[in-house]
Amino acid sequence: MLIKIGYDIEMAVNAPTTVLGALHVHPSRAHDLQAPEQFAVEPALAFTTYQDVFDNTIVRVDVPAGVGSVRFTNHAVVADPGVPDPVVPDARQHPLHELPLDVFRFLLPSRYCEVDSELMGFAWNQFGATPEGWARVQAIVDYTHQHIRFDYLQARANRTALEGWREGVGVCRDYAHLAVTLCRCMNIPARYVTGYLGDIGVPP
Prior knowledge:
Oligomer: single chain
CATH class of the largest domain: Alpha Beta
Number of strands: 8
Number of helices: 4
Helix content: 10-25%
Shape: globular
Protein backbone atom coordinates (compact mmCIF):
# COMPACT_ATOMS: atom_id res chain seq x y z
CA MET A 1 0.00 0.00 0.00
CA LEU A 2 1.02 3.62 -0.46
CA ILE A 3 0.73 5.85 2.61
CA LYS A 4 0.87 9.63 2.54
CA ILE A 5 2.85 10.94 5.49
CA GLY A 6 3.61 14.41 6.73
CA TYR A 7 3.25 17.00 9.45
CA ASP A 8 2.80 20.72 10.05
CA ILE A 9 4.49 21.85 13.29
CA GLU A 10 4.74 25.46 14.42
CA MET A 11 6.66 26.65 17.49
CA ALA A 12 6.68 30.03 19.19
CA VAL A 13 10.25 31.21 19.76
CA ASN A 14 10.90 34.24 21.98
CA ALA A 15 14.72 34.12 22.09
CA PRO A 16 17.58 32.89 19.90
CA THR A 17 17.16 29.11 19.92
CA THR A 18 18.82 26.06 18.43
CA VAL A 19 16.13 23.53 17.52
CA LEU A 20 16.94 19.84 17.05
CA GLY A 21 14.26 17.61 15.58
CA ALA A 22 13.92 13.97 14.51
CA LEU A 23 11.65 14.88 11.62
CA HIS A 24 12.66 12.60 8.77
CA VAL A 25 11.84 9.04 7.78
CA HIS A 26 14.39 6.71 9.35
CA PRO A 27 17.12 5.74 6.87
CA SER A 28 16.09 2.08 7.21
CA ARG A 29 12.84 2.97 5.41
CA ALA A 30 14.24 5.56 3.01
CA HIS A 31 14.18 3.03 0.14
CA ASP A 32 10.38 2.89 0.54
CA LEU A 33 9.94 6.59 -0.22
CA GLN A 34 8.30 7.07 -3.61
CA ALA A 35 9.98 10.48 -4.00
CA PRO A 36 12.26 12.57 -1.79
CA GLU A 37 10.67 14.04 1.34
CA GLN A 38 9.40 17.60 0.91
CA PHE A 39 10.83 19.02 4.13
CA ALA A 40 10.64 22.79 4.61
CA VAL A 41 11.32 25.39 7.30
CA GLU A 42 9.42 28.70 7.48
CA PRO A 43 10.82 31.30 7.51
CA ALA A 44 13.45 29.94 5.15
CA LEU A 45 16.19 29.46 7.74
CA ALA A 46 19.29 27.44 6.97
CA PHE A 47 19.36 23.95 8.44
CA THR A 48 21.80 21.09 8.68
CA THR A 49 21.31 17.39 9.35
CA TYR A 50 23.32 14.70 11.08
CA GLN A 51 22.84 11.06 12.11
CA ASP A 52 22.54 10.33 15.83
CA VAL A 53 23.77 7.15 17.53
CA PHE A 54 20.55 5.34 16.53
CA ASP A 55 20.92 6.47 12.90
CA ASN A 56 18.00 8.91 13.15
CA THR A 57 18.32 11.90 10.84
CA ILE A 58 18.36 14.95 13.11
CA VAL A 59 17.64 18.44 11.75
CA ARG A 60 19.36 21.43 13.35
CA VAL A 61 17.95 24.92 12.87
CA ASP A 62 19.52 27.96 14.56
CA VAL A 63 16.63 30.39 15.03
CA PRO A 64 17.81 34.00 15.43
CA ALA A 65 16.26 36.65 17.67
CA GLY A 66 13.11 38.34 16.46
CA VAL A 67 11.73 35.47 14.38
CA GLY A 68 8.69 34.90 16.61
CA SER A 69 7.82 31.43 15.35
CA VAL A 70 9.26 28.68 13.21
CA ARG A 71 7.29 26.15 11.19
CA PHE A 72 8.33 22.70 9.99
CA THR A 73 6.40 20.87 7.25
CA ASN A 74 6.98 17.67 5.38
CA HIS A 75 5.14 15.53 2.86
CA ALA A 76 6.02 12.19 1.32
CA VAL A 77 4.55 8.89 0.15
CA VAL A 78 5.86 5.62 1.59
CA ALA A 79 5.28 2.12 0.22
CA ASP A 80 4.49 -0.42 2.92
CA PRO A 81 3.48 -4.08 2.64
CA GLY A 82 0.73 -3.49 5.22
CA VAL A 83 1.33 -6.80 6.97
CA PRO A 84 1.55 -7.24 10.76
CA ASP A 85 4.90 -7.76 12.44
CA PRO A 86 5.93 -11.42 12.42
CA VAL A 87 4.95 -13.60 15.38
CA VAL A 88 7.73 -16.02 16.35
CA PRO A 89 6.63 -17.88 19.51
CA ASP A 90 9.79 -20.01 19.54
CA ALA A 91 12.15 -17.00 19.37
CA ARG A 92 15.08 -17.74 21.64
CA GLN A 93 16.45 -15.51 24.38
CA HIS A 94 20.23 -15.43 24.04
CA PRO A 95 22.36 -15.56 27.19
CA LEU A 96 24.52 -12.51 27.82
CA HIS A 97 27.73 -14.17 26.65
CA GLU A 98 26.19 -14.66 23.18
CA LEU A 99 25.09 -11.04 22.71
CA PRO A 100 27.06 -8.81 20.34
CA LEU A 101 28.71 -5.83 21.99
CA ASP A 102 26.60 -3.25 20.15
CA VAL A 103 23.36 -4.35 21.88
CA PHE A 104 24.60 -4.07 25.47
CA ARG A 105 23.60 -0.40 25.50
CA PHE A 106 19.99 -1.62 25.23
CA LEU A 107 20.34 -3.32 28.61
CA LEU A 108 21.45 -0.19 30.45
CA PRO A 109 19.41 2.51 32.21
CA SER A 110 18.48 5.45 30.00
CA ARG A 111 16.64 8.74 30.34
CA TYR A 112 13.15 7.26 30.83
CA CYS A 113 14.04 3.65 31.66
CA GLU A 114 15.41 3.24 35.20
CA VAL A 115 16.69 -0.31 35.06
CA ASP A 116 18.70 0.32 38.25
CA SER A 117 15.60 0.90 40.39
CA GLU A 118 13.05 -1.12 42.33
CA LEU A 119 11.79 -2.32 38.93
CA MET A 120 14.75 -4.71 38.79
CA GLY A 121 13.60 -6.72 41.80
CA PHE A 122 9.98 -6.50 40.72
CA ALA A 123 10.79 -7.81 37.23
CA TRP A 124 12.63 -10.86 38.52
CA ASN A 125 9.90 -11.63 41.05
CA GLN A 126 7.14 -11.18 38.45
CA PHE A 127 8.72 -12.76 35.37
CA GLY A 128 11.62 -14.89 36.64
CA ALA A 129 9.57 -18.08 36.43
CA THR A 130 8.27 -17.46 32.90
CA PRO A 131 9.88 -19.35 30.01
CA GLU A 132 12.75 -17.42 28.44
CA GLY A 133 12.36 -15.92 24.99
CA TRP A 134 9.15 -14.88 23.25
CA ALA A 135 6.92 -16.06 26.11
CA ARG A 136 8.76 -13.91 28.65
CA VAL A 137 8.56 -10.81 26.48
CA GLN A 138 4.86 -11.49 25.83
CA ALA A 139 4.29 -11.79 29.59
CA ILE A 140 5.98 -8.40 30.07
CA VAL A 141 3.89 -6.80 27.31
CA ASP A 142 0.67 -8.29 28.69
CA TYR A 143 1.48 -7.09 32.21
CA THR A 144 2.26 -3.60 30.95
CA HIS A 145 -0.98 -3.47 28.95
CA GLN A 146 -3.02 -4.46 32.00
CA HIS A 147 -1.13 -2.36 34.55
CA ILE A 148 -1.24 1.05 32.85
CA ARG A 149 -4.58 2.76 32.22
CA PHE A 150 -4.54 4.93 29.10
CA ASP A 151 -5.51 8.53 29.85
CA TYR A 152 -4.47 11.18 27.34
CA LEU A 153 -5.41 13.95 29.78
CA GLN A 154 -2.71 12.71 32.16
CA ALA A 155 0.05 12.69 29.54
CA ARG A 156 3.32 14.09 30.86
CA ALA A 157 6.45 14.61 28.79
CA ASN A 158 8.84 13.71 31.60
CA ARG A 159 7.13 10.62 33.09
CA THR A 160 9.60 7.76 33.45
CA ALA A 161 8.98 4.03 33.43
CA LEU A 162 9.20 3.88 37.22
CA GLU A 163 6.72 6.74 37.60
CA GLY A 164 4.34 5.18 35.07
CA TRP A 165 4.53 1.89 36.96
CA ARG A 166 3.84 3.59 40.29
CA GLU A 167 1.06 5.81 38.94
CA GLY A 168 -0.57 3.12 36.79
CA VAL A 169 -1.60 5.64 34.17
CA GLY A 170 -0.11 7.03 31.00
CA VAL A 171 -0.13 7.21 27.22
CA CYS A 172 1.56 5.26 24.42
CA ARG A 173 5.11 6.20 25.35
CA ASP A 174 4.55 5.18 28.97
CA TYR A 175 3.56 1.66 27.92
CA ALA A 176 6.70 1.47 25.78
CA HIS A 177 8.99 2.80 28.50
CA LEU A 178 7.72 0.33 31.08
CA ALA A 179 7.91 -2.67 28.74
CA VAL A 180 11.41 -1.69 27.58
CA THR A 181 12.59 -1.26 31.17
CA LEU A 182 11.18 -4.60 32.34
CA CYS A 183 12.79 -6.35 29.36
CA ARG A 184 16.14 -4.77 30.14
CA CYS A 185 15.78 -5.80 33.78
CA MET A 186 15.43 -9.39 32.55
CA ASN A 187 18.59 -9.14 30.39
CA ILE A 188 16.56 -8.80 27.18
CA PRO A 189 17.96 -5.97 25.02
CA ALA A 190 15.13 -3.58 24.19
CA ARG A 191 14.80 -0.17 22.59
CA TYR A 192 12.03 2.30 21.83
CA VAL A 193 11.11 2.96 18.20
CA THR A 194 8.46 5.61 17.69
CA GLY A 195 6.23 6.64 14.84
CA TYR A 196 2.76 7.93 14.10
CA LEU A 197 0.05 6.41 11.96
CA GLY A 198 -3.12 8.41 11.55
CA ASP A 199 -6.60 7.20 10.66
CA ILE A 200 -5.93 6.00 7.11
CA GLY A 201 -8.82 3.59 6.87
CA VAL A 202 -6.76 0.43 7.44
CA PRO A 203 -8.36 -2.08 9.84
CA PRO A 204 -6.46 -2.48 13.14
